[in-house]
Structure formats: structure tokens, C-alpha cells
Amino acid sequence: MKFIDELQNYLKARYPLILVKSTEEDRLTMDLKLAAKNMKHEIVTWSIASGLKAENAQFEITTVDLKKAIDACENLARTGKSYIFVFYDIIPVLSAPPTNTIYQRRLKEFALNIRTEAYRCNCIFVSPQSGIDGTLQSEITVLDYPLPNRDEVSEQVNKFANEYKNVSNVFIDTSTETLSALTNAALGLTYAEIENCLARSLVEDKKLDMSDVKSIVNEKKQIIRKSGILEYVENKLSLEDVGGLNVLKRWLDLRGTTFSDDAYQFGLNPPKGVLLVGIPGCGKSLTAKCIASAWNMPLLRLDIGKIFGKYVGDSEANIRSALKTAEAISPCVLWIDEIEKGLGQGGNDGGTSSRVFGNILTWLQDKTSPVFTFATANNIRNLPPELLRKGRFDEIFFVDLPDLDERKKILEIHIGKTGRNLGNFDLDKLAKMSGEDNLGKNIRLAGAEIEAWVKDALMEAYARKTKGDKTADLSMTDFEAVIKRMVPMAKMRQEDFNELRKWANENAVSASISVKSDDSADSMHGGRLIDLE
Fold first, then answer.
1. Residue 312: how many CB atoms within 10 A of its CB?
2. HEC string of 241-305?
3. Residue of 89, 97, 246, 473 with fewest CB within 10 Å of its CB?
4. Which residues of the chain have pLDDT under 70?
């Protein structure tokens, strides 16, 4: 196991203080015992509830007195024997004044003696927290404990199924198909969480079968939400809900089948992801939601603003934890919305932003797990050049304001959502009203503005109905009234959008198909135009 090998290297190198960040005490303890067995070390544990414990030693140490416990550990170390001292939930104790200064100083002295007195021992802190400030920061090495991989999850699911399959009045479907589906659903959960989900499913209807997959997925959503960094986004959209962007949609459609075992056997690797740069309100975020649904994959949204923690090392640990969770749940889509806001700022934060950014860059470059990264950005000025280098993403697409045909499609979608008959509206006329023919040169409505236009027109029709016109309904007149008072974003930010297009012509592919239209605006499309007709 990779973690055990990594841990043993740190132990052999005699790192004095190692913090393993995890909530899985039971599974981690088994791995620590395995590492100790491999290295022929004895494990001594401490907790504030149980004090010091060891298989071959007796201690008379008060549970709350950490200093006496450390003294006892050093006395054992002086004997020349090999020990691993494991401290559970020590972080709150080390951080609580006024005793924290004494405890931290005593641990630092112990760490110095491990290096200088040739003690054959290490101290391991097991805690879900990593917030240690003060004198110990320079002494502690932080390790992240990985979630169970697919083989481990499969073993846990099979173990549970075998335990209960012969129990009377209980039905356990042990077919390969069902066990595989339960395993896929449980990816990203800890051992305890997996067992809890399976047990609850079994108690509910005395069965464990394919119908319980949904229950496990729902439980996983709650657990991911509790992390506060990753959000499990639910939606029932499809790519048909995106108007235009035909080049991007075709690119995504071709790659939707490459996550299968058959594709791997054919020699294909799963795509890494895409970066969508462009004008706000033109479908970037919507496409992220649609592609996850179209590929039948979980959609995880990474909130970069929630990554940054209070203590040194927290931010880096948070991003590593989030990325490992995404890998454990893979195949999935990881959506990083407006990536430039979290990574494009230099800041005076002691280099934390740079380290977080470095973690993400390295992961984007080196990841082999089937996590499709869907990143969006609105402001190219804040995009670091390292992010744009080939290898981070499979392609960079530019999303411009919709042309005539795209606006017509967007109108069809949003008017259709109102339940109205599309035949009652002149969609060609509406599409022209939302473009240069009506608004002026280089001025067009974005997709979000068209949606708002439809909603405001519907509100206009409802206002007429409430004023006594009982037959009032959405009409062309309502659209005409609303468009007259709209101030398009393209009018307010012409210079910014032109700068975006100039950048895209050299650095990105246009997400829209190159077509001739009455819009006379082909020159407005940023990015390389690909003609698919």
C-alpha cells in the first residue's frame, strides 16, 4: 500500500513528529500496526481518555497530564528499543492555553532528542485537524491519509455481504453486477461510512440489492457536503439545454465514451479536462452541469474560497483532501468555477495561494484517475500562464456572445420552459431583436440576458393580466417592451470583451461553430473557428 510505504520511509528516516490527518482511526490504526510489524517496532498509544497503553508495558500516568505521558515515552526511548508513539486527538490539547506552551515545548525537546540522542522512535499524531501554531510548526510533518481505493471498497462491500447472506429473513444479492454497482456507489466513503450505509439499507427493507445504490449515493452526497470544500451538485440537465456552443458540445460528446474499460483496452486514456474562458453569462457553468448529467457521472464543485484555512498547512491539506476525494469518487466531473478568482491573485498571504496553486497544477499535470476537470474563467488578466500550458487541460475553449442561430436556439429553450407554444412567436425576429440589428454594432445579448429577457417579458404579460386583461398572455409585444429598457452587458464592457477576443484568437478554440448568418458578426467570434458544415 502506497501510504504504508510512504509512512515507513518517514519512520526509517526518523522524522520525530508526524501528523496523520484522518477521521478513520480504526483503519489507520490497522495500518500503523502493520507498519510497526514490518519495522519490528512496538506501538505505544495515548489518549486523553485512556492514558498510555502498550501490549508489553504498564503505565501509571494520569490521562489528562500529557507532559507526564511524554516523559514516560522518552524513558522508554532511552532503553534503546524501537517504538512508535501514537497520540490520538492531541491537537486540541496542544492548542488549549495555558498548558499548550508547556506541552509544545516538551514535545519539541523530545523531537530534538530523537534526532540528537539516537532514539529509535517516532511520534505520530492522529487527528482530523491540522491546526498547530507556535513552536512545533517547524518540527511536524503532515501526511494525508487516503480514502479507501476501489479494491479496498470492494473488499469491504463483499465482506459485509458475506456476513449477512446466510441470515434468515434477509436477502443479499451477491451477483457481480450488484456488488460492483454498490462498490462504485461507495467510492469516496470511509470504511465506517460504507458499513453504516450498507447496514441502514439492510435494516430498511431486509434486502441489499441494486435498489440500495441510490441510498448509498444520497448518503455520499451528504458526507461530501459536510466537508465544506466540495459540493455534490445535483441536476437533470442535458446538453440539449445548452443553446449553441456546437464545437464544444461535439468535442465533449466524442469523449463521453472514453471512460469505459473498452476504450482503455483500445488504447485510449480518459480526457483530463477543459478550460472554458469567455464572456460571463454565455453558458460555461451550465455546460459543466449538463456534461456531468450527459455522461452519467457525479458532479463535484470545488469552492476555492473555502480551501484557505486559518492555520499553516491547513490550506494545502484541504486542497489535497478535496482532490483525493474526487479521485476516490472517480469517474466524475470536477467543476472549478471562476478559477482565476482563487488562483490568479498574488496576495500577501505568506505564499499560501502559491502553494495551493502549485498543488492544483501538479495534480492537473500528473493525475491518472478518470477525473474530468471542467474549469471556467471570465478574466484572462488573472490567469497565470502556467495554467494555460499544454498538459494541464486537453483543450482551451473560448465562449463568446451567441450569434443569430444560437440566440434563436436559446430563445426556443427558455420560451419552451414557460409552457408556451413556440409557434405563437416569431423566433427569427426575436433573435434579430437581441443582436446587432436592434442593439447596435458589436452588441448582442448573452445567454443569461436572453433568459432574463424571457422572464421579464413573462412578468410584463402577467402584469397586464392582473390589471384586468383576463386573456393576457406572453406575446411579441411584451418582448419588444422589455428589450427597449435593457442595457446589454456587451454595451457596458465593449473594451473588455474585445480584449478577450484578441487573446482567444491566439490561445483558444472557439466553442461555437463557424456559420454565416444575418448577424454580420462573424468577426466578433474569438478563438480559432472550426467549420463543421
1. 17
2. HCCCCHHHHHHHHHHCCCCCHHHHHHCCCCCCEEEEEECCCCCHHHHHHHHHHHCCCCEEEECHH
3. 97
4. 1, 131-134, 227, 309-314, 342-352, 514-533
Helices 447-466 and 404-417, interaxial angle, to 10°?
40
- Extract the C-alpha cell encoding 335: 467543476
Return the C-alpha cell found at 526.
Answer: 474569438
Q: Which three cell numbers stand for residue 315?
A: 490550506
pLDDT, tens digit, 9 for 90 and up, residues 108-140: 999 999 999 999 999 999 998 776 666 777 788
Return the bridge partners of 101, or none.
none
- What are the DSSP E strand ranges found in 161-226? 171-172, 207-208
Q: Pick the closest to residue 339 from 286, 292, 388 (CA basis).
A: 388
Task: Locate 296 and state its grid cell.
Answer: 452519467
DSSP, res 48: T
Question: Beta partners for 143?
Answer: 20
How many residues are present in the chain?
533
Per residue in 153-210, pLDDT (tens digit) is 999 999 999 999 888 888 999 898 899 889 888 887 888 889 998 998 899 889 999 8
